[in-house]
Amino acid sequence: MKVETLPVTQGSYNLKDYEEAYKSFDWKDAEKVFSWAETGKVNMAYEAIDRHAESFRKNKVALFYRDEKRNEKYTFYEMKKWSNRAGNVLKEYGNVEKGDRVFIFMPRSPELYFSVLGAIKLGAIVGPLFEAFMEGAVKDRLEDSEAKVLITTPDLIGRVPVDELPHLKTIFIVGSDVEEAGPFVDFNKKMAEADNDLDIEWVDREDGMILHYTSGSTGRPKGVLHVHNAMIQHYHTARWVLDLQETDIYWCTADPGWVTGTSYGIFGPWLTGTSNVITGGRFKPENWYQTIEDFGITVWYSAPTAFRMLMSAGDELVKKFDLSSLRHILSVGEPLNPEVIRWGMKVFNKRIHDTWWMTETGAHVIANYPCMEIKPGSMGKPFPGIEVAIVDDQGNVLPPNRMGNLAIKKGWPSMMRQIWNNPEKYESYFLPGGWYISGDSAYMDEDGYIWFQGRVDDVIMTSGERVGPFEVESKLLEHPAIAEAGVIGKPDPVRGEIIKAFVALNEGYEPSEELKEEIRQFVKTGLAAHAAPREIEFKDKLPKTRSGKIMRRVLKAWELDLPAGDLSTMED
Ligand code: PRX
NCBIfam families, from UniProt (predicted)? Predict the structure, then answer.
């Protein structure tokens, strides 16, 4: 089969550099860019902010922030001061110490970024929570992590069941006229009074830094722990994959509640001393193009669902804006359709570069580098210094063009170090021989390009967000009308997948459109809007194994009109 390729169009290094690096790349050498290589003093936040504030980048803008109400910018020098203040406030009023879990549950704002950096400067472990989470989702995460401190807003505090969280000692509220009583502290007031200088907690490279909760196909969401050492990979992927250079204006559209919004919304850009644009507010195609024009964005990192939504807003809209500043566009989170890449060529005259990685990998693992030919539909090639292979279920490496488990050899710098409170779960990711099993299936072609085929498990990727069916099913079962629930991802042209729920009702309840809507709202307000099923179908009974487990694979087969496969374990 002849595979289409798109030629190299831009990039600040060439294929030869890349090939050289590929042959000789050594993570030990890669460490030499950090100040700790000389001083021995390690802290991600120092490396991302203070080091630049003490250099020629002192007055360079680190953060451009814009939403409907605010339009602000902060230099590296100012970021140093504000993050120091945040550190002082957390220490003084929240008694935050090294290793404590500090959770941050709020919409994007400069204060969110000051808090993340301030907490990391104290050696704390930051847990960012997506603002759309509702009470059930918030409680699960705060409980499992035994978070000691929470930073949130007056709008969101109602979703935090404070009385049911004995470990949570202090809650900072970011707002105006905050009433200080019990565990509640007025964050802005304390920030205004705080000291600009902070004693940074120097940590071990293997100390915890960030805890992202993510979903699998079974069980509650799990806490994926990353350590300061991850900065090595954040830095070098920001250089090689994002191709960030001194004069770039970079925009990552992801929220820090998800790993892309921290690894490449905070760490990667700031470790490399790049000007970083952060926007708040809802997605609107006009606003997005306006952002690119107004800030003169040069490097733009987003996701297939967003590109597809922009695509459906039409090509005429694109022409109303001056997008000529763009030089490098990237995508992550779901399969990037060749059609979208072709559209990008047409309207931006630029290639969109796919990248593959996961919450657990902490940073890019596979990418289309600026200097290489793109094969639309392929995720690209492994990052230098990381061994990626397609393996069978026993860990045997498969030859080219054979589909199997997408696996990574243990030991890349930004690999997760723990599943919080769950060592068995952590171990279950690895096969003998040191292969980390991603849960994705893929094949590698004879040129080393990797082609995504699907998830091996039941994890749903909807609009680039990872949703575990178990979490949604558990919530559905809390609804009084529901006796049984099974949840699957249903293919969708814009969102990649949407969530579809099959439910069987308890006696006394009748299927109706009103009931569907009520169930949808129930999940929306109990868990999160993005986790609510867009489609609900009533069934008298759901397919189960003899041990009572809902067979999602059969539900999926029903939905897609496919053969259901082996039904020998199904109850009558
Ligand atoms: O299935 C893969 C999909 O997203 C999963 C990881 O989700 P999460 O941990 O939320 O991280 C998303 C962003 C880092 C993967 O197991 N995925 C990620 N990138 C791609 C992708 N699927 C296809 N193509 C990609 N480029």
Answer: PRK04319.1
Q: Which residues pair with 451 in a beta bridge?
A: 443
How confident is the model over 427-457, as pLDDT tens digits?
999 998 899 999 999 999 999 999 999 999 8
Q: Is the CB of 486 under 6 A from ligand 1?
A: no
- Does the beta carbon of 257 sit less than 6 angstroms from any atom of ligand 1? no
pLDDT of 566 reads 74
- Report yes or no: 49 and 117 within 8 Å, Cβ to Cβ: yes
Question: How many angstroms is it from 186 CA to the middle of ligand 1?
Answer: 38
Ligand 1 centre to CA of 89 (Å) is 36
Reported ipTM: the value is 0.99
Q: Which two tokens stand for residue 96?
A: 């935050």
Domain containing residue 406: CATH number: 3.40.50.12780
* Domain total of the chain: 2
**Measured distance CA(259)–CA(242) in Å, rounded:** 16
What angle in degrees, to the nearest 10, is found between the helix axes of 469-477 and 513-526?
Answer: 120
What distance separates the 2 farthest-apart alpha carbons in the chain? 72
- My answer on whether 549 and 418 are in the same domain is no
How many CB atoms are located within 10 Å of the residue 334 CB? 21
Whether residues 404 and 512 fall in one domain: no
Same domain, 478 and 425: no
pLDDT digits (tens, 9 = 90+) for 18-31: 777 777 888 999 99
What are the Cα distances from residue 164, in Å, to 18, 58, 136, 171?
53, 45, 12, 14
CATH of the domain at 502: 3.30.300.30
432 lies in the same domain as 474: no
